[in-house]
Design brief:
The structure is a single chain. The protein is globular, with a radius of gyration of 14 Å. The two termini are 28 Å apart. Strand 1 and strand 2 form a beta hairpin. It is an alpha+beta fold. The strands form four sheets. Strands 8-7-6-11-12 form a five-stranded mixed beta sheet. The protein has a three-stranded antiparallel beta sheet with strand order 3-9-10. A two-stranded antiparallel ribbon has the order 1-2. It has four helices and twelve strands.
Length: 166
């Protein structure tokens, strides 16, 4: 499993770490309208999945805004942001922030995504900051588990991975 810290304190990640070259695991999360969303709902597209502890915090806000800006130039790519924030809070935040190119998804109900991708933080019931790129055949082509949850991911590497998978 990936070793990460949250505010420099080691935390325990639940689930299974995904690796490049593996088939992406399925998951069930909630859209802002409370409908269920699974990996299959975006089948046939390249997916960039940006995972944040909470959309209402500084780095998470910046990460989501950055991928929203990049999304319009990526072509046939679905950009998803997953957190454990309630769908209502995600919807409110997106409206206030003008986010239109990223779909926010909530893993609050049962941590399905967090456990499937090995990013559920046991001690905090949050998701560890991470970025995944999944190609149109559901194969993981990029996986970054950010070692310190309050740090930014490698945006450039993630965008290059999306372009290579597209």
């Amino acid at each position: 499993m990936a070793q990460i810290t949250f505010k420099n304190n080691p935390v325990t990640l639940l689930g299974t770490e995904v690796k490049v070259g593996e088939k992406a695991p399925d998951f069930k999360v909630l859209a802002n309208d409370l409908s269920e969303v699974t990996l299959a709902d975006t089948k046939g597209k390249v997916r960039l999945i940006s995972v944040v502890p909470s959309i209402d915090t500084g780095v998470c806000d910046q990460q989501t805004r950055r991928f929203n800006e990049e999304a319009s130039s990526l072509g046939n790519v679905e950009v998803l942001t997953v957190s454990v924030d309630l769908p209502f809070a995600q919807k409110r935040w997106c409206a206030a922030a003008g986010i239109e190119n990223v779909q926010t998804l909530s893993d609050h109900r049962d941590l399905s995504f967090g456990q499937a991708f090995g990013v559920a933080i046991e001690e905090l019931r949050l998701l560890a900051r991470s970025v995944f790129v999944i190609d149109s055949n559901d194969v993981v082509t990029y996986a970054e588990y950010v070692s310190e949850a309050t740090n930014h991911p490698d945006y450039e590497a993630a965008i290059e991975a999306v372009k290579a998978a597209n």
